[in-house]
Amino acid sequence: MKKILFVTSEAHPLIKTGGLADVSGSLPKALVELGEDVRIIMPNYQDIKTTEEVRYLSTVYVNNYAVNILETRLPGTDVIVWLVDSPEHFNFPGNPYLDEHGNPWTNSAARFALFCRVTVEVAMNRSYLDWKPDIVHCNDWQSGLVPALLSLEYSRPATIFTIHNMAYQGLFPNATYLSLNLPGQLWHPYGIEFHDMLSFIKGGLVYSDRITTVSPTYAEEIQTAEFGYGLEGLLSYRKDFLSGIINGIDVDYWNPETDPNIPQTFNRLTLNKKPLNKTALQERLSLPVDKNIPVIGLISRLVEQKGIDLILKCLPEMLTHPLQIVLLGNGDKSFEQHLYNFVDSHPDKVSITIGYDETLAHMIEAGADIFLMPSRFEPCGLNQIYSQRYGTVPIVRKTGGLADTVVDTVPETLSNNTATGFVFNEASPGALMEAIKRALILYDHPKTWKKLQINGMQKDYSWIKSAQQYMTLYSHL
Ligand code: ADP
Ligand code: GLC
């Protein structure tokens, strides 16, 4: 049994902005079930939601701050969560990265530098918790300074850094770096400096013992200029220490057979009940109720990464077909406005919900026929996996985890029962439109469509295999 300190900036259901929270809320649970001793460490944000007891454990002193460590559980599980409680940094309304008005926190560097420093104290067993991890498993830039700071310690635990997205690097001006009082030895081009800026992510990429990312394809892609955001050289230099492990999902929470968020539960033997979810979705969103019309769903952060611009370019042609489009997301204001324009012109075909809505997300996965995910890049992606589990056939671009989790429908994959969706290559409106048309044609062949749904629903998306791959990595460290 290994002791693992799992470092993250968000974890479902405590607080979530995207897929990192899904992973942080489910991988530790799987590791505990496989016998590892895991503690999650994360900041104690004001917006954390829990019904579990929270209790005081200890106080540590870092960089002139007295910071409390609180203990709770991941709701509904036995997984221990340690909350880094510094009210001056985290006791404000908003999410981990944006304030309540949607603006990035102006003191993000200070917030996460403090979080990293406290994590190092915990990792070195200097915080009176009487527990020293064998492995510190860090995730994304918010935890990047942990491997860097630990590299300066004697008798330190081993470190793993998992990249969930290379597009977010935690880059800050030199002046911010100076205000943080970080050890000077780390500041050089082969350390945490990146073109005279402070790069949190480099702390993880340079100093961790192993780097992983969330799909095998993305592990290759980030070694190229297109996906590496200037760090492709460093990543290919460290390629012997870099690997891709595909994300699993919480198969209890995303389970069409038991999901309390959907009006009608179903499984692959009762697929005939799925359309009741479509009717409920159409009713809730005030779209014409029609069991036969294909409903295309999308749940996403509305950002460049997700290929929203491709969808906007395809929408005029899509809307010439008999279909309905149901979108849920938030993010870039100009994407939101452009999408609203289509609702104004086609209120009977397009529904947009701007905001974050967990229940509606489940209802869309259950009620839609087709799921759209034309990402320009996608480290793993979870919604295309949830879709397959809910018999909702995904259309995805062949990149990152989308390429690794969806099998395109061609005669061969249809006959060997591996086809689960529609995959296109080029990031262009034409290529996306062609995939949409392929899907619409097959939708009119109910027998073949059902085959795609069942192929997708039968796949094993649980964490077991991937959690075991992490355990193998841990055991080699
Ligand atoms: P990313 O982490 O890049 O946003 P993923 O596909 O890995 O993409 O994970 C996104 C997660 O966030 C999924 O669980 C998805 O259902 C959820 N999600 C994204 N936007 C919303 C929203 N507006 N409302 C509810 N859930 C959302
Ligand atoms: C990131 C990526 C997404 C991935 C998620 C969880 O947010 O954008 O592709 O699924 O992390 O690993």
Automatic annotation (TrEMBL):
<dbReference type="InterPro" id="IPR013534">
    <property type="entry name" value="Starch_synth_cat_dom"/>
</dbReference>
<feature type="domain" description="Glycosyl transferase family 1">
    <location>
        <begin position="287"/>
        <end position="451"/>
    </location>
</feature>
<feature type="binding site">
    <location>
        <position position="16"/>
    </location>
    <ligand>
        <name>ADP-alpha-D-glucose</name>
    </ligand>
</feature>
<dbReference type="Pfam" id="PF00534">
    <property type="entry name" value="Glycos_transf_1"/>
</dbReference>
<comment type="pathway">
    <text>Glycan biosynthesis; glycogen biosynthesis.</text>
</comment>
<comment type="function">
    <text>Synthesizes alpha-1,4-glucan chains using ADP-glucose.</text>
</comment>
<keyword id="KW-0808">Transferase</keyword>
<feature type="domain" description="Starch synthase catalytic">
    <location>
        <begin position="3"/>
        <end position="236"/>
    </location>
</feature>
<dbReference type="GO" id="GO:0009011">
    <property type="term" value="F:alpha-1,4-glucan glucosyltransferase (ADP-glucose donor) activity"/>
</dbReference>
<dbReference type="Pfam" id="PF08323">
    <property type="entry name" value="Glyco_transf_5"/>
</dbReference>
<protein>
    <recommendedName>
        <fullName>Glycogen synthase</fullName>
        <ecNumber>2.4.1.21</ecNumber>
    </recommendedName>
</protein>
<keyword id="KW-0328">Glycosyltransferase</keyword>
<dbReference type="GO" id="GO:0004373">
    <property type="term" value="F:alpha-1,4-glucan glucosyltransferase (UDP-glucose donor) activity"/>
</dbReference>
<comment type="similarity">
    <text>Belongs to the glycosyltransferase 1 family. Bacterial/plant glycogen synthase subfamily.</text>
</comment>
<keyword id="KW-0320">Glycogen biosynthesis</keyword>
<dbReference type="InterPro" id="IPR011835">
    <property type="entry name" value="GS/SS"/>
</dbReference>
<dbReference type="GO" id="GO:0005978">
    <property type="term" value="P:glycogen biosynthetic process"/>
</dbReference>
<dbReference type="InterPro" id="IPR001296">
    <property type="entry name" value="Glyco_trans_1"/>
</dbReference>
